[in-house]
Amino acid sequence: MTRTRTPGISRRSTLALMGAGAMSVAAPWVARAQAKTIKIGMPTILSGRVAQLGTSSRNAVLLEVEKVNAAGGLAGRQIEMVIRDSKGQPQEAARVARELVNTDGCEWLIDGEASSGSFAVHEVARDLGVLCVHTCSEASSLTADPKQHIPNAFRCVRQGIHDSIVGGSYAAAISKAKGLKKWATCSPDYAYGRDTTGEFTLYLKRFAPDVEVISDSWPKLFQPDYTEVVTKILQAKPQALYSCLWGGDLTSWIDQANIYAMFGQMEVFAVNMADYTALTVVKNLPKGIHSGNRYIKTFPATPENAAWGDAYKAKYNEYPTNWSWQNATAVMFLAEAAKKVNSTDGKKIAEVLKGLTIKCPFGADGTVTMRGDDHTLVGYAIGWGTTIPQEPYVPEVKAGDWKTIFELEAEWKKSKGYT
Amino acid sequence: MDLDALAGCLSSSACLVTQTTSGLIIGMLLFLVAVGLTLIFGVLKIVNFSHGAFYMFGAYFAMTAYQLTGSFALAMLAGAAGTAILGLIFERVFMSRVYGADVLMQLLVCYAFVLIFDDVVRLIWGPEFRSMGMPAAFQVMPLFIAGGVVPPYYLLLIGVALVAAIVLGIGLSRSRIGKVIRAAAHNPGMVSALGINTGLIYGGVFALGGMLAGLAGALAAPVRSLTPGMGFSVLIESFIVTVIGGMGSILGALIGALLLGLIRSYGSVGFPLFTEGLMYLFMVIVLVSKPTGLFGKEAA
Q: Å from B249 to nearest chain A CA?
């Protein structure tokens, strides 16, 4: 018996086409998984006041991608970066991230957003199930809070809580040695400023219980004039001052505090000072500001780190930023994970990323680890030192102790109800 | 709210000197920006939403001139003269086309140029923040007066702004050109009928307004970071000043700016979490009690 077939598209073909269509709409990264190149989407901040950091993130990613592609790509597939500007707006970051996956066919995301945007991109990653590596948000809750946890998202960034533990311990040691009991704080009035300052003073008081915070100032983000803040600090006459101002706000504040000779009247601890974005811009950098390391090519003091900093400068004619090393590390992790599973499948990559340790120029001991239980970066070089007005800017950095960081971080998580 | 700290400050000569000069510094810089805004509104009846861009250009022009010549005086001159020329061109080529148009149209044109000017700065000087640095002559220890701290550079800043206020006040009230400008503000048709080129007056007023904002930017450049879009926050405070002082009033701009500076200065001591709110609260109180502002005149 011969089966006759009516002209046109069969029911089976229709179903297959509908299935493929639905698949390409609902999960385009799966539908396009076998493309020759692998597209990786990256929303980041390329315009506005933070554009310099976003640009340095893009530069670092491209620098590392070039190396991966030259070495044969990810499991034989060349990487094509699709990088879009979010203008630093969370809703735009989410829209761009979604568009990168659904329209541009990106299979993975590197999220180069600041904290507010990162939480928005995180929700897109949760919704689409696409592999996502956050590379700029330092807000600890992004990975510490179990409610935020999703199997396909990782954070390859330093954390506020780590910096606060190391900074608090460093500042307490200096407080005890110099008898600095009266402290003031001056930090930007938004979540990052308040959280980081709170955590810093928490650990400062833990290590030096007789410290007292006698004055606090909260200038708004991107405030042009700090005169009233500077004079208020001078009136309070603290022996030491903590600030987590950053970028242009930090340099404005330093310039304005300088003409009041503020830096000669107290010890200043500015966690974000030791980043080339600020170090190279301030024309009259005071000597002896204490700062956490952001990115400097002399810490960790290894040939690998110095070579990476020099290579970046040779290519882009400027020094990398804190966001640069974090983005570069993300590409290193992804490349190593793809090598291990010889695949670019997002789920397989996510599985192998958990607990993965790689060689890295920015590691405290030459390696960094993507911690398995909360998908966050640990083991990176972290420390504090004092500034001088010319290179190497922070000649000696006292490295933080990761054993102490882990212990206190576990306590902190417990106190927050995260564990 | 820390009323104890405020009371302590008010009873200490050191705090009084430091916080009062701090308020004067903030106020005088604001005055230079706001007076241009109010002058342009008074004569041209235009709310120049792009005025902050002139402050930004003044700072960038000054920084560039300082980097090229190393001369602080030339840097100030470049900031003021550059923005005066820019203001003249802007008024003649673009703004003159929307006189008499709907207010919304004028606002849209101004806002478009806020974005365009920001991008122009980004293209020429780059998106990253920049710093001019304090000239060597002012890298000196601050003065200690009655226990209070006063940086010499800020004395210069206050002096320059005061001179500008006096010259402007006398120039507009006593000189012939000042009288013509005031006449043009009151009745441009009549001034034109008398054979006076009102276009030139409008261009001149816009250039003067731009120059004052540019001078403020140039004076601020050694102590503030320069970044595309830096004019916006100054613009908002300048609007508050002009609303408090009265739109179109130069004396009002001066008083309004000084009051705002003092509110910020003492507010940061007594109301550290409500300093911004205090400014707006004061504006609301003024508007409720005198809707035209402290020195504004009722429309005829």
A: 25
